[in-house]
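Quick question, first post here. What does this chain look like in 3D?
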Amino acid sequence: MNIDTAAAELKAEREKLVHQLRELGADEAGDLTGDVDYGEGFADAAAATAERSEVLGIVENLMSMLNDVDNALLKVKDGTYGMCESCGKRIGADRLEFRPTSTRCVDCKSKAS
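> Answer (accepted):
Ran it through. Tokens below.
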């Protein structure tokens, strides 16, 4: 995979993640933009609170993925994309194709696990 292809795929992934955040009522910073209406009764409030907690969990996960994509795009820009942050060697093309936001080669990742 060449750098231009990787950058295009990362940008597309970023757009997808931002779209998903907006669908959940969150902005790019992960802040929910809408208010939760708790309704009239306690049961409604409990259900709304549970739903909001679930949405917050999904937003948190999307924000983590967006952060990984943004970091990978910065690496593309500064010329360090595809370099292992631990050992400095090239990350294998297969690994980058499978997970374009990888920051470590397979060897370093397996040592860290």
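Residues 85 and 104 are 6 Å apart (CA to CA).
Helices lie at 3-23, 42-78, 93-98, 106-112.
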